[in-house]
Amino acid sequence: MVDKTKYYKAKLKEPDFLRIARFIEKNYGIRLPLTKIIMVQNRLYKRLVATDITSFEEYVKFVFSPAGKLELEAMVDEITTNKTEFFREKAHFEYLDKKFFHSAPRDKVFKIWSAGCSTGEEAYSLAITAEKHRIKYSIVATDLSVKSLEVAKKGLYPQMALTHVPGEIISKFFEKKYIDEKIFYQVKNLLKNHIKFYKLNLKSSSFNVPFDLDIIFLRNVLIYFSMETQSQVLAHVIEHLSPGGLLFIGFSETIYKRDLPLKRLGPSIYKKI
Ligand SMILES: C[S@@+](CC[C@H](N)C(=O)[O-])C[C@H]1O[C@@H](n2cnc3c(N)ncnc32)[C@H](O)[C@@H]1O
């Protein structure tokens, strides 16, 4: 067994934290006020162990050096908050189910974007909702976190992740698997074939997604950004929405920028006008 205590004794000091925080906000929009110093320290212990570096001073020097390029990606992965779940903020899926897909034309292909998809549960929940109506659809699901995207692409979830998912949905769209005597559920190709997962930074100047989308889920991502970045990202994201298309943001998020071509349809649901 490796003795990890030498790594866990390290303390992240303010100048090193600020260097990380400035880099993260500038490149990815995620705000890290000084109150997050302990959170960042705790999340990065894993990286000290992985790189066999015993101080944060040395780690920060390494991560921002040319040799630390790969490590930088791993550091960003640890700093992002990837909490998500199947059918999170259920009212949005009910809206699609009862009010949108319900009267949808059968010949149209609905184009959907799950922006900040984390480990994929949101994209798969969208696919399940679309399947229920037997409509044609394609989903692009993007995130900054490479580690989360790997989980999303695999589509293999522990039993716990499906606690609130009805049994008939599980049996139709998932395959039960036993791994190390534990139960897992594997998303079937029936859903996977409709979804493309890939890396996309919402802070970047151009997005590799279609410009004629019908639905965008941008939920629980904006909260990590400053007001200014939120406005920029929102304006940029909705350029990819067709007129009449729907934008869903998280329940705890607000649209501050008033001059966007959006009409509020319901709690955190907007239509592009
Ligand atoms: C809390 S999760 C939300 C997941 C899902 N949308 C939901 O509501 O359950 C936020 C996700 O946004 C991603 N994220 C944060 N900043 C981002 C950026 N600049 N570009 C793309 N994704 C970002 C994180 O990696 C994380 O997976």
Q: Can you lay out the helices and strands and say which pair or pack?
A:
Blueprint (H helix, E strand, L loop, with lengths): L4 H4 L5 H15 L8 H15 L4 H8 L5 H11 L11 H10 L8 E7 L5 H12 L3 E8 L2 H9 L1 E3 L8 H7 E6 L2 E6 L1 H4 L2 E5 L13 E6 L8 H12 L2 E9 L12 E5 L2 E4 L1
Parallel strand pairs: 1-2, 1-7, 2-6, 7-8
Antiparallel strand pairs: 3-5, 4-5, 8-10, 9-10
Bound molecules: S-adenosylmethionine.
S-adenosylmethionine binds next to loops.
Instruction: Determine the fraction of residues in helical runs and give it as a percent range.
Output: 25-40%
The gyration radius over C-alpha positions equals 20 Å
Summarize the main sheet: 7 strands, mixed
Give the total of domains.
2
How much of the sequence lies in strands comes to 15-25%
Q: Which runs of at least 5 residues are low in confidence (pLDDT < 50)?
A: none
Query: CATH superfamily assignment of the largest domain?
Result: Vaccinia Virus protein VP39
Oligomer: single chain
Distance between the termini: 60 Å
Encode the helix/strand succession as letters. HHHHHHEHEHEHEEHEEHEEE
Overall geometric form: globular
Provide the CATH architecture of the largest domain. Answer: 3-Layer(aba) Sandwich
- Structure ligands: S-adenosylmethionine
Walkthrough of the structure:
The protein is α/β, with parallel strands linked by helices. The protein folds into two domains: 5-79, Chemotaxis receptor methyltransferase CheR, N-terminal domain (Chemotaxis Receptor Methyltransferase Cher, domain 1); 91-155 and 189-272, 3-Layer(aba) Sandwich (Rossmann fold), CATH 3.40.50. The protein is built from eleven helices and ten strands. The protein has helices at 5-8, 14-28, 37-51, 56-63, 69-79, 91-100, 121-132, 146-154, 167-173, 189-192, 227-238, and strands at residues 109-115, 136-143, 156-158, 174-179, 182-187, 195-199, 213-218, 241-249, 262-266, 269-272. Strands 6-2-1-7-8-10-9 form a seven-stranded mixed beta sheet, with helices on one face. The longest helix has 15 residues, at 14-28. The chain is globular, with a radius of gyration of 20 Å. The protein starts with a helix and ends with a strand. The relative contact order is 0.12. The model has no long low-confidence stretch (mean pLDDT 96). Bound molecules: S-adenosylmethionine.
